[in-house]
Structures are given as structure tokens and as C-alpha cells.
């Protein structure tokens, strides 16, 4: 009788091999549209949006108007600022929500964006405003790259690490010279919180993530091409 422990296996599919939820793109398109509309309201000061939506340290920490840390996510300085954020917000959000749940991803991203703003505002000048979705976008990027590294075990840890680093540099390295109007601190805090969120998600849902894997037994002569299950 063959000993099952001596079998050699190849990992054929992971969760990321599956088709993402097709409704994810629809949900992210609606969310992007909502952000655009709210930014337009702020630009034109409709219903006083230019007054009550943006956040500064004086208003949030001094005036205890903590809700501004979330409303300011929906405000942008100009069309260029809005479009640069909306593009990555839609792309990253579609991938994340397509695999890990629309409600969970959008809810967690919005909550995390406010937390990022609270952290960053605490160290900013009193009246300087912090606006935009950048913290959310970088949170999504960090979460996606962390989850990719845990899930795509068809590749070695080194290969995954190199791919993740390459994607991070391509997406998030500034294409222009240093701009003092950009809050690079919110980018960093958002990215690190996103990585932490990805690690936490994997720790909580590891069994369901691994349940999506498809392993195939291979003949002994193909052993050199086989993949051994990892502990992560």
C-alpha cells in the first residue's frame, strides 16, 4: 500500500486563481462616483461642504471635531488630485473587494482612512488641512501586497517578495519631484496600516484562504517540479 506521506504534490490553484466577484467593479465604480460628487460639492461649497468637510489639527484635535478625519477623505484639492487617487482607489479596491468581500473592504478602508488622518493630523501645523483619499489608497495597496505574499504560494517566498516590492515601487514611488503640498506621512502610515490589516485578515481567515487551494499529486519522477506546503 502506498504511503500517503511519501506523495509529492504541486499547488495548482490558490484563492487568487479564482475569478473575483464581478460585482466588485460595480461597487468600486459607485464608490468612486460618490467620492467625485462629494469633491465637487466641496469645490463649489454646496451646503457649506468646503467648511465642514476638510480636516486640520486645530479643528480635529483642538475643536474635537473628530468626524472630520473621515469627511476630509472625500475632499480633493483639484481635478488632478482627485483623478490620481480615484484611479488607484478603483483598481486596488476592485481586486481587494473582489476576493475578500465588498462590504468588508470598503468599510475597513474608510475606517482605516480616518485613523490614518487622526494619526497624521496630530503632528501637523494647527491650521494646515489634510484632504484626499491618499491614506485609503495606500492602505489598500499595503493590504493587497501583504495578502498576495501570504496567498500566492505557487511561487517561492523570494519570488513573491520581489514581485510585491516591484509592484509597490511602480505604484507608489513618486513620479515627480518632492511636493511640499503632498502628505507623504499619510502615505507611509496608510501603507503600514494596510500591511497590518492584511496580516490580521490572513491570521483570522487562514483556514478559509487555504481551503481554496488545489493540490495535485504528481509521479515521483516529477518531484523536482513539485511544491511543498509551507507553514504560512
Strand composition percent? 5-15%
Task: Examine the coordinates and then state which fold CATH places here, giving the name of the CATH topology.
Answer: Rhomboid-like fold
Count of discrete alpha- or pi-helical segments spanning 4 or more residues: 9
What class would the helix/strand composition place it in? mainly alpha
CATH class: Mainly Alpha
> What summary fits the major beta sheet?
2 strands, antiparallel
CATH homolog superfamily: Rhomboid-like
Quick recap of the structure?
By secondary structure, this protein is mainly alpha-helical.
Helix-strand layout with pairing:
Blueprint: E1 8-13, H1 23-43, H2 49-52, E2 55-56, H3 57-62, H4 68-71, H5 79-100, H6 102-121, E3 129-130, H7 134-151, H8 157-172, H9 184-211, E4 214-218
Antiparallel strand pairs: 1-4, 2-3
Helix pairs in contact: 1-5, 5-6, 5-7, 6-7, 6-9, 7-8, 7-9
Please provide a written account of the structure.
The protein has 232 residues and is mainly alpha-helical. The protein has one domain: Rhomboid-like (Rhomboid-like fold, Up-down Bundle), CATH 1.20.1540. It has nine helices and four strands, in the order βααβααααβαααβ. It has helices at residues 23-43, 49-52, 57-62, 68-71, 79-100, 102-121, 134-151, 157-172, 184-211, and strands at 8-13, 55-56, 129-130, 214-218.
Which short descriptors sum up this protein?
Rhomboid-like fold; two-stranded antiparallel sheet; 9 helices; 232 residues; elongated
